[in-house]
Amino acid sequence: MRRLIRLARPQFPRMAVALVLIAVCAVALLAIPLVVKQAIGVALRTNHLDFPGRLIALLLVLVIGSALANVLSFILMFDVAVAISSGLRLRYIRHLIDLPVQFHRSSQPGELLDRLLTGVVEVEWFFQNNVASLFAVTITISGAAVMMFLTSWKLSLLVVCAVPLLALMVRKLFRKARQLQERGRGLSGRLTGSIGALLLGIDVVKAYNSQDRSMERLTRQQDEFFLLWKRGARFVAAVEPVMIAVAILLFLLFLLFGGFLLAG
Amino acid sequence: MYLMLLMPQTRVIGSIVNRWQQVRIGLNRLDDILELVPERDHEDARTLPVPVEGRIELRDVSMSYDNREPALRNVSFSLGRGERVGLVGESGAGKTTLFNLLLRFYEPDSGVITIDGIDVRSVQLASLRSALALVPQDTTLFDDTIAENVRYARASATDAEVEEACHLAQISDFVESLPDGYQTVLSDRGMNLSGGQRQRLAIARALLKKAPILLMDEPTSSLDAQTEEHLRRAMEVAMEGRTTLIIAHRLATVAHLPRIIVLSRGRILADGSHQELLETCPLYAEIVATQMMSQSPAAESAAQSETVSTGAA
Fold this sequence. Notes:
heterodimer, A: mainly alpha, 8 helices, B: alpha/beta
């Protein structure tokens, strides 16, 4: 996370604006049902559907405001993601250029490009799509936690004790998944490197009629990569339901404890 | 109720954590490279005093790649200002390694290399390399105009200087015959150019640099006999006042030079003029004999048929 923060630091002002806009959007969306509820209340009280203009105007402001905030935050986060990934890409290329000739003579350009493409795309995607969700989740969880503490500090204490245990388990499981995926990425890099070398030496491949042999070699490498990649993906697929099951168990436990508190 | 609000977030968190894993893997793979130490100057590195005279000296230089058999063993020789020397020897004799060391692409295991009496290890890389112009065996051309490809050697060069360098390298007639002339874009990295045309562009690039030391690795390997002759005359002018080291497999490229160094298995076997070497160095005499045999009329005509194509850029 520290690395991402370091990468994002020059973009903090734009990110801050985008996050404020996301919060505005969330608040606006939360307020819409309240306004509608109030409008219906007014209608029921007065027994006709003549909503006050003030409420309709507020509703319009909220809908248009949340839509605008949403669009602006998306554009800003897109710009942030592009700026961060461009900076990272240029830094990597500059570093490659500055590395000794000795290094380049013992490396495969395709493998180096694979690192660049996959790494930068992941970072760009994360900033473009996941930072906003992360922010929204953080707001929801923090809000819920505060409200829970105000409602029942005993229940909150139970949650506070259980969450680190859950986090520890998740961490352990994901570390295993990451190791598998990391090895998979390494093999994917080697595969891209081999494809690059093959294309650079295409005249030799054709002159020696070794198209089929080259394909066999690449297929072997690809199978090796997919085998590991599949193992990693299956592990991740299995981890997610386990996480949810544990969360449900904890949820039931909290409900029971909450019920016990109420009964008490 | 608030607990219920937290429940759906589990899935969102799961998907973010999963994506975060991918980001971590991606960043780790980038960091593997970003943590490697780049080429850098020593703290007390200095620039070569200007103007660089171009005197080169190697004292007991040895070097091996990745702890394999030494590519150079205790090599010592010196070149005076403006001296022109040919390097010959079988493949793997250490000729290209000498260039790698002069350009500091690699560091020697032992021994000292000096330029104008200054140890190259104590010189800033940019300063050292600005004193050397390289014509490599395989020419690298970039996706840019011909003019910019030549200007790669010296960004501040004027159009007239670029054209002059191309003229000296005997490539100006070809470039000017193209519809866009010097503004022709080599979008295919110049792959449609013949080997000779590519090589002459590389020579134009080196000439434009106006460096006091010229390093040429088989500069005429892709040229037909007629162009080679033209080029040789142009090179004579270009080499004037410049220290020049030329690696050649074709002895015709270097036989006219006043001095030739014969390398074998990383050692200097002989050092002298073409005539002296013929008399004193059996390996050199053998190479000459072999090349004379291969340049029999049949072989010569085969070589001539590989003439420069005029394929469009």
